[in-house]
């Protein structure tokens, strides 16, 4: 589980690091391509990533409860 | 939460994910490669989006409109489904400066392009009837294939409606639960004070835990709504944050609920904490309704369907979007309640552990 999270974070960081590599104008170019479908992908991924992150936080709380018992 | 509700929730979310990405956009007009029109023949390429120029070559018509007078163009070459090269012959005099370009096929219906165009070579006479005008077939929005509405600037990102907007609906539902629990706290406290019996704090504590866990989960959806909205705004309105009343209202609501948690955590006396937080929460919810639902309707903003007529216009939310948007809202609200339920149960267990220590 821990390595999975680490890998996920690494992937996220690498993706984010790739974005500033574009200049501002090519960022627009990148997202405007093929009818702005990439905006949808970005938004949908953020929603899913956010919800998964919240579930991970809840999971941690449950783990703490189990430890105390 | 009942098991069948969880199954409904998963089914609705699966439907949302698949439908929001699966269906194509309705056909639309993208651009014409002409900057200046002149009397006589004008040759240009009409570029459509998701159109079927090749597949439906037989019924393809391209025409130039000046006001409500149409001039049919001769199809020179159908390059592919989205590109067609045409020649339109225009007279010296046009009835209107309002120039637009149309294409019509039985499959796609009528799609049009409006762009600023140089028409200085023409004389304009209001109500002029030209002898070369034609009356083409116009079938507005009568495309045969299912598709989300095509809107210039928004394009494919109209699918975000099924991701960004349900975040706010879910936040509203969770804050409503929190609001109801807060009213229960004050109600219970008042009743106990009136009855003049020994205070039973367990009920107030239960309501308070419910209110806090519901608002906490709601805040997660609020943050997601803010981030997704910001990204969508960057690529349609041109900036990460615009001065839209809805955006600023959402930010104030976010800060209000952050303040609610700061207030809760800064009071040590459990009972005082519950009552103070409840009062703050009631005001926060009223502010939420005012800032997100009432205010934007009185101010000019970028969000559709807000200023002026509060209802969504028929094109902003047409039947194809409703078909996915409503299940998406229901699915995300159920997911929000599910997460709130987990959050609440964890908080209760934590409290029990503390009492046992």
Model description:
The complex is a heterodimer of chains A (69) and B (357). Chain A is mostly helical and 69 residues long. Chain A has one domain. Chain A is 94% helix and 0% strand. Chain A has helices at residues 2-21, 24-68. Chain B has 357 residues and is α+β, with helices and mostly antiparallel strands. Chain B folds into two domains: 28-124, Immunoglobulins (Immunoglobulin-like); 155-356. Chain B is 50% helix and 16% strand. Chain B contains six helices and nine strands; from the N terminus they run αβββββββββααααα. Chain B has helices at 3-22, 161-195, 201-236, 245-266, 270-298, 319-356, and strands spanning 28-32, 40-49, 61-66, 69-80, 83-90, 93-94, 99-105, 109-113, 123-124. A seven-stranded antiparallel sheet of chain B has the order 1-2-5-4-3-7-8, with no helix packed on it. Chain B has a two-stranded parallel ribbon with strand order 6-9. In chain B, helix 2 (161-195) packs antiparallel against helix 3 (201-236), helix 2 packs across helix 5 (270-298) and helix 4 (245-266) packs antiparallel against helix 5 (270-298). The interface between A and B is medium-sized, with 24 and 32 residues.
Q: Provide the helix percentage of chain A.
A: over 70%
Class computed from helices, strands and strand pairing of chain A? mainly alpha
Largest sheet of chain A: none
Q: What would you report as the Rg of chain B, rounded to the nearest angstrom?
A: 28 Å
Q: Which class best fits the helix and strand makeup of chain B?
A: alpha+beta
Extract low-pLDDT stretches of chain A: none
Gap between N and C termini of chain A: 22 Å
Question: How would you write the strand order of the largest sheet of chain B?
Answer: 1-2-5-4-3-7-8
Stretches of chain B where pLDDT falls below 50 for ≥5 residues? 308-314
The chain-level mean pLDDT of chain A equals: 80
Instruction: Tell me the fraction of residues in β-strands of chain A, as a range.
Output: under 5%
Q: Quick one: overall form of chain B?
A: elongated
**Count of DSSP-assigned helices of chain A:** 2
The level of helicity of chain B is: 40-55%
Shape of chain A: elongated
Tally of discrete structural domains of chain B: 2
Largest sheet of chain B: 7 strands, antiparallel
Query: How many H/I helices of chain B?
Result: 6
Radius of gyration of chain A: 17 Å
